[in-house]
Amino acid sequence: MMNRRDSVGVKVGEIQIGGNAPVIVQSMTNTDTADVEGTVRQVMDLAKAGSELVRITVNNEESAQAIPRIREELDKKGCSAPLIGDFHFNGHKLLDKYPDCAEALAKYRINPGNVGRGSKRDPQFAQMIEFACRYEKPVRIGVNWGSLDQSVLARLLDENARLSEPKPLSDVMREAVITSALESAERAVLLGLPKNRIVLSCKMSGVQELIAVYRALAERCDYALHLGLTEAGMGSKGIVASTAALAVLLQQGIGDTIRISLTPEPGADRTHEVIVAQEILQTMGIRSFTPMVISCPGCGRTTSDYFQKLAQQIQSHLRHKMPEWRKKYSGVEDMHVAVMGCVVNGPGESKNANIGISLPGTGEQPVAPVFEDGVKTVTLKGDHIAEEFQELVERYVISHYGSNPGNLAAAE
């Protein structure tokens, strides 16, 4: 088991970040926040998919006015996911004018690079922190290299230019990101915000830059850290880049909460970023969220796509059932289900899973043995193997994870 970095715990609603709490999954809506119905629907979808914290844009008066109504509607529908307000440029004005918004949000996100320009930066940052103190809200001080505080960068560039051997520009940029976060956090503490209400993030869009920045940041403070590769991209590129960066840091015990910032395909489900975040944590053995499906890639022995369809069907079914199962069956998220396509590795993988099926490959006998906890329990045949195996998975969950064994008889 990897050792987690020690960090100061921060409560966001009923969710704890850091302080030896599990790594928390976050996401963000992309609806117009003023659209109360649409935003409520997306927050609920994200929460149902497993997002434990949901960030929403608060960029104008209409969105600030909508926040209390969004919170109220979510509460009515039984969705308790804490809402994080994402503020840029005018957050100090919105929190001042709309106290109900300030109260309804569980956390504020402040970017030191655009909280205010020039002489307005410090007083406007102070206003944001004062509101956090007044309403007893935690704050994420989120530095982004694309909107870096130019005064910090200019100061470090001047200092670097005076060195006998100046450092490369990339090194100065990384140091500016870290310095902006740490100096902002120090100022927040001086303004009265306790350390246990501060989370830091330093987001970069390059994998190696992100790893280098967070390693240095982790060594220089004990604040809770939010991880995320900003502007990760679309599709496989975004998933691979985010996984490459976050896996390295998580393996070193760095990171208390994560978000996967994928560019969604047009019309695609926003919840995909939540699933990717969960799968990173689960495949690394850090947290379990839903039963894992083990399946082979297929080869010339598996010319039929039957096993692929079954694997996809089972995976979708498990995810669909998890909101219900999570409440009723303790530990079911750790279950492993194998769906294999031929006799080469099929029986072995099936025996090693909690429950597994080895489907017939090309030219093999048209039977499918099913193994439960390493023992063959039944052999399926005919045209309804998929339905029968899904039913066996359901029975396994009830019999092995149900608090009352009598549930098995009831399910029948």
UniProtKB/TrEMBL annotation:
Pfam families: GcpE, GcpE_C. One of its GO terms (molecular function) is 4-hydroxy-3-methylbut-2-enyl-diphosphate synthase activity (flavodoxin). InterPro entries: Dihydropteroate_synth-like_sf, IspG_bac, IspG_bac-typ, IspG_C, IspG_TIM, NO2/SO3_Rdtase_4Fe4S_sf. GO terms for biological process: isopentenyl diphosphate biosynthetic process, methylerythritol 4-phosphate pathway; terpenoid biosynthetic process. Its cofactor is [4Fe-4S] cluster. Residues 293-394 form the IspG C-terminal domain. Binds 1 [4Fe-4S] cluster. Pathway: Isoprenoid biosynthesis; isopentenyl diphosphate biosynthesis via DXP pathway; isopentenyl diphosphate from 1-deoxy-D-xylulose 5-phosphate: step 5/6. It catalyses: (2E)-4-hydroxy-3-methylbut-2-enyl diphosphate + oxidized [flavodoxin] + H2O + 2 H(+) = 2-C-methyl-D-erythritol 2,4-cyclic diphosphate + reduced [flavodoxin]. [4Fe-4S] cluster binds at C296, C299, C342, E349. Its EC number is 1.17.7.3. Residues 10-277 form the IspG TIM-barrel domain. It comes from the Bacteria. Keywords: 4Fe-4S, Iron, Iron-sulfur, Isoprene biosynthesis, Metal-binding, Oxidoreductase. Converts 2C-methyl-D-erythritol 2,4-cyclodiphosphate (ME-2,4cPP) into 1-hydroxy-2-methyl-2-(E)-butenyl 4-diphosphate. Belongs to the IspG family. This is 4-hydroxy-3-methylbut-2-en-1-yl diphosphate synthase (flavodoxin). It comes from Methylocaldum marinum.
